[in-house]
Amino acid sequence: MLDELHRDEVAGYRFVKRIDAVKSYRGGWLQVYSPTESEVHLADDIVNASLSFTDAECIAVAAARDERLLTDDGHAAGMASQRDVEIWDLKLLLEAALVKDHIETESELETVINELRERDGYRFSSQDRADLFDRL
Predict the structure, then answer these.
(1) Residue 116, Cα to own-chain centre: how many angstroms?
(2) Do 90 and 97 meet the contact criterion of CB atoms below 8 Å apart?
(3) What is the pLDDT of residue 50?
(4) What is the pLDDT of residue 16?
(5) pLDDT at position 24, please?
(6) Secondary structure of 14-26 in HEC code, one letter for each residue
(7) What are all long-range contacts of 44-49, with beta carbons under 8 Å and residues at least 24 apart?
(8) What is the pTM of this model?
(9) According to a count of CB atoms within 10 Å of the terminal CB, is the N or C end of the chain lower?
(10) Which pLDDT tens digit goes with each residue over 62-71?
(11) Neighbours of 104 (CB within 10 A)
(12) DSSP characters for 47-72?
């Protein structure tokens, strides 16, 4: 994953510059792992023609360390599920933030959703948006 972040930074993707800020936000809740040698070998076993090596590494790290995997890639999620990895998507992550009162108002939720759309091109379905706002 770190190799992919470096390629994205060289290619000019703006989100890469925000990674350090996100890692230290609210006490550093985001953990970025480097795969061990055995996890790289596991990733070699996982990767296939329809799954990037970066996704395979993420699955390998999550499987080996019994961690959940945050992804909205359906294929990667399916491959991870085959290895009994718990999958979270952005909707589930936001639901957890709502339940834990990290997002407390409609305005805060709207800001997060809008920034995901504007900065990352992410779009929630109408149903997913409704479900999120119903949790407030």
Answers:
(1) 12
(2) no
(3) 94
(4) 47
(5) 58
(6) HHHHHHHHHHHHH
(7) 46/79, 46/83
(8) 0.72
(9) C
(10) 999 999 999 9
(11) 12
(12) -BTTB-HHHHHHHHHHHHHT--EE--
What residue ranges of the chain have pLDDT lower than 50? 2, 6-11, 16
Look at phi and psi of residue 38 and say left if phi exceeds 0, alpha if psi is from -120 to 50, else beta: alpha
pLDDT in the model for residue 120: 84
Q: What is the dihedral of CA 49, 93, 67, 18, to 10 degrees?
A: 80
Residue that the structure tokens 């790290």 belong to: 61
User: Which residues fall within 8 angstroms of residue 2, CB to CB, at 6 or more apart?
Assistant: 32, 34
| Residue 86: closest CA among 63, 105, 107 | 63
Residue 39 tokens, joined: 């996890």
> Can you spell out the DSSP letters for 80-117?
HHTTT--EE-HHHHHHHHHHTTSS-SHHHHHHHHHHHH
